[in-house]
């Protein structure tokens, strides 16, 4: 028996998210099916991040156990020949049997892309949120500084989340602008349900001058979801990487 860790990239457009659920097709379903066929045994993967429907990934992490003799590093190549084009394994490697992607301390980086121009671009429709309202990136950067550090992010937690605490640590937020494309990079030790998308939605409100950058401090203090900005659409979000200690 060995445990294999996969680094998984996918275009989430056609999937109901990472996690298996009834009456829909998830990325995990596709991986489990093709791994089971490849290795000739029932495989159930465990994912590190349960990305939502329409959310993309460059480096989500999954593990599974197998008795197959195929070397762990070869599984990525064999599996990629079977997978659909919108899912690709970037790396496969053997890890200790006690490694669990949800129980090991990690740092995650997400990016949220915004296409900010007069007219939308069809080729970007699945990968960036479009808004024609001009965004002030300088004000967005100033607002983002209030979110860095350890805070109670209850105002930035989507409804229905079942967590023991809403306190999280955000290590860094960078906002870059290249032409018409704005990218918000958020790095942290863990995130609440829809947290990054609500951060993006709130920073866009600041960029639109709906409220000043310092108002974000008041939103945090309120611990009330109604005080923060809208949840930005899923299509602009990508899980960039997960780094383990």
The level of helicity is 10-25%
Uncertain residue segments = none
Mean pLDDT: 96
- Radius of gyration, rounded? 19 Å
Short summary:
By secondary structure, this protein is α+β, with helices and mostly antiparallel strands.
Describe the fold and architecture.
This protein is α+β, with helices and mostly antiparallel strands. The protein is built from 5 helices and 10 strands; from the N terminus they run βαββαβββαβββααβ. Strands 1, 2, 3, 4, 5, 6, 7, 8, 9 and 10 form a 10-stranded mixed sheet that branches. A hairpin with a 2-residue loop joins strand 8 and strand 9 (about 180-190). The radius of gyration is 19 Å and the shape is globular. The two termini are about 25 Å apart.
Summarize this structure as a short list of keywords or feature phrases.
245 residues; ten-stranded mixed sheet; 5 helices; 10 strands
């Amino acid at each position: 028996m060995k445990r294999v860790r996969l680094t998984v990239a996918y275009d989430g457009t056609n999937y109901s998210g990472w996690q298996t659920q009834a009456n829909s097709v998830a990325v995990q379903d596709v991986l489990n099916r093709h791994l089971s066929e490849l290795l000739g045994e029932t495989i159930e993967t465990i994912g590190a991040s349960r990305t939502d429907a329409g959310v993309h990934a460059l480096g989500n992490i999954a593990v599974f156990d197998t008795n197959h003799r195929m070397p762990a590093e070869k599984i990525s190549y064999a599996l990629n020949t079977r997978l659909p084009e919108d899912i690709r394994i970037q790396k496969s490697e053997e890890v200790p049997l006690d490694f669990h992607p949800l129980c090991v301390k990690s740092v995650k980086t997400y990016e949220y892309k915004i296409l900010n121009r007069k007219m939308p671009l069809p080729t970007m429709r699945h990968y960036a949120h479009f808004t024609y309202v001009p965004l002030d990136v300088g004000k967005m950067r100033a607002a983002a500084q209030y979110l860095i550090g350890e805070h109670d992010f209850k105002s930035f937690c989507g409804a229905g989340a079942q967590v023991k605490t809403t306190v999280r640590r955000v290590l860094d937020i960078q906002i870059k602008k290249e032409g018409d494309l704005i990218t918000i990079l958020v790095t942290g030790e863990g995130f609440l349900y829809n947290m990054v998308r609500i951060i993006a939605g709130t920073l866009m409100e600041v960029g639109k001058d709906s409220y000043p950058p310092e108002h974000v401090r008041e939103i945090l203090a309120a611990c009330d979801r109604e005080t923060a900005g809208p949840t930005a659409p899923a299509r602009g979000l990508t899980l960039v990487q997960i780094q383990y200690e």
